[in-house]
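Researcher: Batch entry, complex prediction.
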Amino acid sequence: MYPKKLIHQAISNPDFPVVETKYGKLRGTWTDDCYIFRGIEYAKAQRFHLAEEPDPWEGVKAAVNYGPVPPEISTRIPGDAFTEPHFWYPQSEFCQNLNIWTPSIGTDKKLPVMVWIHGGGQEHGSAIEITAYDGEELAKWGQAVVVSVNHRLNVLGYLDLSSYGEEYRDSGYAGMMDLVQSLRWMKENIKGFGGDPENVMLFGQSGGGFKILELMQMPAADGLYNKVSIHSGTGKDTLFTKENAARVAEDIAGYLGLERKQIKQIETIPFHKLAKAVNYAYDRFTERTGKRLQWTPPVDYKRYWGNPQMDGIRFREETKSIPMLIGSVLGEFVSSAHHNSQDGDINTWSPETAEKKLSERYGKYKDKIVQEFLAAYPDKTPAQALFVDVFMRKPHKDLCRMRAAEESGAVYNWMLSLDMPCYGGSTPWHNSDEAYFFHHAEYFESEYIPEVSERLQDEMAGALVAFAYTGNPNHVGLPTWKPVTNKIPTMVFDRKTEIREDYDDKLIELVTKAGALGPGGKGPVRTYGGGPRERV
Amino acid sequence: MYPKKLIHQAISNPDFPVVETKYGKLRGTWTDDCYIFRGIEYAKAQRFHLAEEPDPWEGVKAAVNYGPVPPEISTRIPGDAFTEPHFWYPQSEFCQNLNIWTPSIGTDKKLPVMVWIHGGGQEHGSAIEITAYDGEELAKWGQAVVVSVNHRLNVLGYLDLSSYGEEYRDSGYAGMMDLVQSLRWMKENIKGFGGDPENVMLFGQSGGGFKILELMQMPAADGLYNKVSIHSGTGKDTLFTKENAARVAEDIAGYLGLERKQIKQIETIPFHKLAKAVNYAYDRFTERTGKRLQWTPPVDYKRYWGNPQMDGIRFREETKSIPMLIGSVLGEFVSSAHHNSQDGDINTWSPETAEKKLSERYGKYKDKIVQEFLAAYPDKTPAQALFVDVFMRKPHKDLCRMRAAEESGAVYNWMLSLDMPCYGGSTPWHNSDEAYFFHHAEYFESEYIPEVSERLQDEMAGALVAFAYTGNPNHVGLPTWKPVTNKIPTMVFDRKTEIREDYDDKLIELVTKAGALGPGGKGPVRTYGGGPRERV
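Model: Structure tokens for the complex:
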């Protein structure tokens, strides 16, 4: 994704590296002991229809450049690209493409396949949106095949037009079924890239986590993966019912002036016009429900069984045995919001300044929260208690307990609490764990701490890779890590990584009671990083 | 611009690194012995008006993230991002910001200031568009202050509305005057960043070269720089006369339905609507002239004296003494076009295949051209003769001779002819020299050749830095380099760099005669890299 200092000469020749797939030959790039294939078309799709297998080709096709990324209704601009380095890329609705990083081709190594599913809700983002998603270091260091997938988002991925006729019965599932199609492609083709089609781990952050849980609730994905790793990506969310979905479709068709019998036109209308209609529908949705529309596939208890954390919904029997590695970071959006403030260096605030800010956020719970924070994180300062997330942490713990209670596959829980070095110090923010899980923290100015980062990324990426190999994240660099039972043993990744059991229950409870669920204590704000959104 | 493997911990704290400017304090980032200040606002501007000094501020302002880049009428998508790695970034017409890389702040080092002016004609691009424009390595290795500047482009930078009233008398110069304003900012503020305000070199590639020549023809820029380096960026171009400019303004206002007295509305119309009108005007311009509209400031012989290579126009007396370092690369757009082809590895074509292609491009001149090519480049193969640029090389040589004949400041000429390692071999393409001039070729997969690249970038960046220090590119790593007289001694950068005098005159003459001026021999095609342009 980004230029790295090369050791060897990269090779991208007409005849090397070349891999044969079911559809034809692909040539990629070999660079410093990693083979990279970018922008591989895994499917083709017509708007509002399910993706199908790609067309075969003659000769050797280039897989050297990234493919287009999915269109966004409005392109996200992070408030702080320093802590969340971004990579924008041309968008196209014909975005069914994936990228592969592998240490081995043309062998029978059967390396585990680690499939990265990006975040940004189901509205934003791409397989290459954030520079941390580059898979080269993880593939080489972990000796695994890393794959990242682009798939349709927002209106293109989830608009349910089923009430407009049989032709559109699947349109609400198009985005998730792109992902399924990519997994089918891997099943058939990943062997040529050194991967084991029978050992596939899904891992994703934020919206990527939500999408993984959705795949677990979709029968079409059964058998295409056998373990999942969810980073800061679960919660009880607005349920996108069939009724909600139908109303959104009506709002959009209405705005576009399309009668029922004209609905076919919605397939060819320019995307920027469609996007305007979507913004109109967003506003109507918020008027009706008081919430922001969160795209998901509509729940039909057939193709999609719904968010397992909602009342009355459970995990499907078919995915019960899937082992799960799950965790979040100490600051999440609370830290991100601070990066945009003019508040200066939290680690040099006077005690009075810190007190004042803690009172603003926590009110009468301030002292108790600071006490519980220091009990949970004894090496931290009172001021850092200001930057504690519960919006993610709470539902993650709930999910851990739920899986354990249902006697599902093993669940392992982690927390990243490392004080980051930028801006004079910051608790880890939403997405800051990926520089570590992808084993390249030393490329991130806002996150790299010499010696500390090298060890920590060995621990974190090591856990992820061990889990991808075996379904168990334990490795020699870590204390013994037991799965969740009625207790939650959490691997707290920090300068001194250790296991702590049920260590922050009281803290989470108090912060929740104080109503300080999101940035600034004003309740949950789903900003996905805090940046402004430009409307079309 | 892109993450680099860090050695030290980067520091971006509220109190370090901080530099005081005329308008207030700025804090940047210190990373591996380089201080980086990104997105510094050097001016503020209202649409179609000249930029003014920015507002002062209290406290310390962050200069950690890049600022927005200039809006493009249609965003350029390079056909091959592998050979031209790109960095897209959010656009805004409030794009008057610059980036600084410096090895030294808070000292009195008075390092030379190297001001990068990006290409993309005057239509496209940004200070950070191509990853090669990252100034960190050049600043550290060269011990110089590197600055890159965003400024208004296309309609926002050059629409001449002067016939609509006195208020808009300067609108056709807004983009170039942004650049002038940035140079004024440097004059007043660069000392705090370790720079010498009296030693400023402009360097630019492609459109960046054209913009430098325009600055030389604009009295407003006099005294703000004292040397120029032009890379693949000159030519006789469509003259954007006052009459042409006025017609374009009428087409745009007409499309928008604006009467003369309503013209003020053009300042607030959303950019995407304005862009539609611009596309309309482009088509009208092409109908009238048979050419593509190339934005430049209109020639009024007062604010702008016109392209010095056009008939009847000369350099202004005031810039005669400016020394010039100028050159281009062997393949330019001819190579870029080949990267998009399915033609395979040029270095393993059979003699018959090469013959056939040479005949297609050069017709009856084929044999003579191959003969002259091998005389000019004895280490190359006949097939490589297919990828020779004259579209850039010819006017560059003409400019060299013109400056020398006018007894201007010294002119030094170079050529980059290194066979690049990607796709089985490729003559250097348009923009491929920047990875070398910025001294970080080892970050570019398509360009890095171990040992060769390290030496070559020492030679090339060394010449650029020596020129920035003294106005003379000679350094201990190069053969003696004399300025142009009635002869052109060219420093041919390659595996074995050497000076060759008037070595390719016959080759250029023959290719020109064969009519093979651009990619595929179909005459000049101004694609700026060959990618498709998506219309708004």
